[in-house]
Amino acid sequence: MSTPSGFFIPDLWAHCPYPAIYHPNGDAVVSESDEWILSRCTGISPSLRRELPHLMSGQLAAFCYNNCNDERLRLVCDFMITLFLMDDLSDEFKTKETEVFMDIIMNAMEEPNCYRPGITNGEKHPEVEPDASKLSRDYWARMRAGAGPEVQRRIISGVKEYLIAVRQQADDRRTGNIPELEKYIEHRRMSSGCRPLFHIIEYSLDFQLPEEVINHPLMVRMRDCANDWVAFSNDIFSFKVEYSRGDKHNMVAVMMERYKLNIQSSFDRVAALCIEAMKNYRECKAEFPSFGPEVDAQIEAYCYVMQSWMSGSLAWSFVTPRYLGPRRHEIRKTLWVDLTNQRLRSANGA
């Protein structure tokens, strides 16, 4: 079938009740974080190094963590751009290389004082410390100094889960596997990076929620719903870039390839899942029990950041050129993405 002329991005703003608010000192803090990563990434490819300032991950952090102080926002920015870098670096890896990469990062978080090369499945780690390890040791040494023990544990667990998902994604790229929808959703909740990024909410606000709050079934469900909104909407915005290069780890691609929907129907179906996630989040929040005035105030602040993630990620998708390119502001107005000169690698392009 011929490539479609384009598609309309569903208007998710119409279904997001939360305002997108940018941190009042966001730009200054983001500038410091950008300087930090550029000064430490000496070993990556020149092309990726040039791309780092254009990731604009710090701006995403400033949208999502707009209620924390400047010092904490700075660490959040450093953490987020490191996750973005991990994602971009992993695109170039084969499965075996991804396993080595994963172990190096986890070693850096578990032993942040110095780099100790190890062995993964018989593969020796580099003698010279990779940039991703340097960055991880750096931000984690600073972050753990201001995080409670349970918050630290949750962050480390979240990063490990994210890296496991990155490894699976590398394997899927190698084999050409496109999972069924339920499997994809389960994996996307891990590969989005939202789980560790939600775990640093407590760090950003300088408190530690009780375990019975963090593990309450409604709170677990709320995190999944917020994660789904952020991840699935990101699949909508990133589809053109990812699919044009043959990356099928995208829910729109799953709808097209697995369920043989046309391109616009695929976008509309993904949007429907976003809307359902928002509805479920709000219902869970309305039913959440009280844990006393002090903890309730912390819960409200915690939920505020998740809500800022849902609105802030939408706003950021039209700020960064990462997905929609130089015409992103026009696309924000029209919601139309032109594919006239775009070749989609799909067997079901219409």
- H/E element order: EHHHHHEEHHHHHHHHHHHE
The major beta sheet can be summarized as: 2 strands, antiparallel
Q: Quote the distance from N terminus to C terminus.
A: 6 Å
| Percent of residues in β-strands | under 5%
Residue runs with pLDDT of under 50 for 5 or more positions = 346-350
Mean pLDDT comes to 91
Q: Do you know the CATH architecture? A: Orthogonal Bundle
CATH class: Mainly Alpha
Query: How helix-rich are the residues, as a percent range?
Result: 55-70%
Strand order of the largest sheet: 1-4
Q: What number of structural domains do the residues give? A: 1
CATH superfamily: Farnesyl Diphosphate Synthase
Task: Give your account of this protein's structure.
One of its GO terms (biological process) is isoprenoid biosynthetic process. One of its GO terms (molecular function) is metal ion binding. Belongs to the terpene synthase family. Keywords: Lyase, Magnesium, Metal-binding. It is built from 16 helices and four strands. It has helices at 26-40, 46-55, 57-64, 70-90, 95-110, 131-144, 149-175, 181-191, 194-205, 211-214, 217-244, 251-259, 263-287, 293-317, 321-324, 328-334; strands at 6-8, 119-120, 123-124, 336-338. A hairpin with a 2-residue loop joins strand 2 and strand 3. It is mainly alpha-helical and 350 residues long. It has a single domain (22-327), classed as Orthogonal Bundle (Farnesyl Diphosphate Synthase), CATH 1.10.600.10. Mean pLDDT is 91; it is low at 346-350. The strands form two sheets. A two-stranded antiparallel ribbon has the order 1-4. 67% of the residues lie in helices and 3% in strands.
